[in-house]
Fold this sequence. Notes:
The chain is an alpha+beta fold.
Amino acid sequence: xxxxxxxxxxxxxxxxxxxxxxxxxxxxxxxxxxxxxxxxxxxxxxxxxxxxxxxxxxxxxxxxxxxxxxxxxxxxxxxxxxxxxxxxxxxxxxxxxxxxxxxxxxxxxxxxxxxxxxxxxxxxxxxxxxxxxxxxxxxxxxxxxxxxxxxxxxxxxxxxxxxxxxxxxxxxxxxxxxxxxxxxxxxxxxxxxxxxxxxxxxxxxxxxxxxx
Length: 212
């Protein structure tokens, strides 16, 4: 039986080409079984370590799927490293005190804001709308009494943009000024507000297309 058959765990870590070449080399020196085995194992280990970057990336992706984490999908042309750093202070998952979450698909940010009264909520929304005018950008949002759901995403080019991250940060600061109640909203309330926003988006026109 060939010596390599006793090295099954190592073979599984090597590429097919490395295994084939190792077998070929061992066949030319079959009389030196001990040395052949060591050389083949070294060749396979070398192939294993050379493929580590690919394996690490694949393992990271698999871990992200198992942990049900969402990865941001940025708009074309943005400074992705800078936005990634800015997101660390916004996202709940980053554990830096942020309260925003990536939407399914990673193309935007979402969260709900709750205030003591409807008047406070309306003042907050008015302040946000003024910032939207300055930034030439708008949210997808909905409001019921003292709670407002906000989703920041960019439609053209599609994805998470610099304006989305900047306005999400502005919303956090404005919410503090207007006395946001930081207790968690119930899942049913948040879901209902999302559905209202989704319905509005479906019925709205092409907000990011060329003006006619």
